[in-house]
Design goal:
By secondary structure, the protein is of the alpha+beta class. It has helices at 25-29, 47-60, 71-84, 157-168, 212-219, 233-237, 265-278; strands at residues 5-8, 11-14, 32-40, 43-44, 90-99, 112-120, 133-143, 173-178, 183-186, 190-195, 198-201, 225-228, 241-246, 250-257, 260-261. Strand 8 (173-178) and strand 9 (183-186) form a beta hairpin. It is globular.
Length: 279
């Protein structure tokens, strides 16, 4: 059980206290989305990109956006919460937003509510993984390719089942395919491959979540060319490297996909570049 405090609509309350009823729309319908952020030495990393995505999700899901929902507003509450929980040196933060109670599938109130939670993170998340991840395809669910597929939705069933599959099959990560049999993303990350010194990642039209670290890599000045293009299983098997990205771990390299093994030369360089540029 989480100790300390959480922030519910701007109020700091004990994390173990009950805060909503069975009518909560996130509980009923998954009606909302979330951000997972990393705090390091009192700073929210990649805050601009996180809140750019947060506002885009609010618009896409037709919330009525309060004027005080700004980056500065949320950053202050995140840092205040981390300070109250004594984790501001290194923390994982979850900011979940959900629609107000009322209605069946059609809501009667589009105002957003939110919860912010924080947990201490080990400094090992700043290090590149020593052993390559073991991965494979999650065969049971295909991700759709539509305007909602890029949202970090509160309805996470495909990823929950993929994570269970990975655990059952002794994988570190399971890769999800889209309805066309091409790569969407993985359990908790976006996927990149390296081929002939060029880095490729699927475009968001392939069904993957709009990851913040993914967007950072696409926009940053890097010593490698990074391009978007659809990827299939053959691309994975014939890649020189595969690595996964998210806001908490940064970059993690894949050592094994099915019968193919990979190195981490490019991932190691990118890890150092990110470390110098963000911390």
């Amino acid at each position: 059980m989480q100790v300390g405090f959480l922030c519910y609509n701007g109020k700091y309350i004990p994390a173990a206290d009950p805060i909503f009823t069975a009518d909560n729309r996130s509980f009923r319908y998954g009606d909302g989305f979330f951000e997972t952020l990393k705090v390091y030495q009192g700073n929210v990393l990649l805050a601009d990109l996180h809140f750019e995505r947060l506002l885009a999700s609010l618009h896409l899901l037709h919330f009525d956006i309060p004027t005080h929902f700004t980056k500065a507003y949320f950053v202050k509450q995140i840092i205040d919460l981390c300070n109250k929980n004594n984790v501001s040196h290194m923390a994982r933060v979850r900011l979940a937003i959900f629609r107000s109670d009322g209605g069946l599938y059609d809501p009667v109130n589009n105002l957003p509510n939110y919860i912010i939670q924080s947990w201490e993170l080990s400094k090992t998340v700043l290090e590149l993984n020593q052993n390559g991840l073991v991965t494979d395809i999650f065969p049971d669910v295909k991700k759709s390719c539509d305007k909602l597929s890029a949202v970090k939705s509160n309805n996470c069933l495909p990823y929950v089942m993929a994570a269970m599959y990975a655990k059952q099959h002794r994988l570190n990560e399971a890769i999800l395919l889209n309805q066309y049999g091409r790569v969407a993303d993985s359990t908790i990350a976006n996927l990149f491959i390296v081929r002939d010194k060029i880095i490729y990642t699927p475009p968001l039209t392939e069904g993957g979540v709009c990851g913040v670290m993914r967007k950072y890599l696409l926009k940053a000045e890097l010593p490698f060319k990074v391009q978007e293009r659809p990827l299939d299983i053959d691309d994975l098997e014939n890649a020189d490297e595969i690595f996964l990205t998210n806001a908490i771990y940064g970059i993690r390299w894949v050592g094994l996909f099915r019968d193919s093994s990979y190195g981490n030369a490019t991932a190691a360089i990118l890890h150092e570049v990110l470390h110098e540029g963000m911390l």
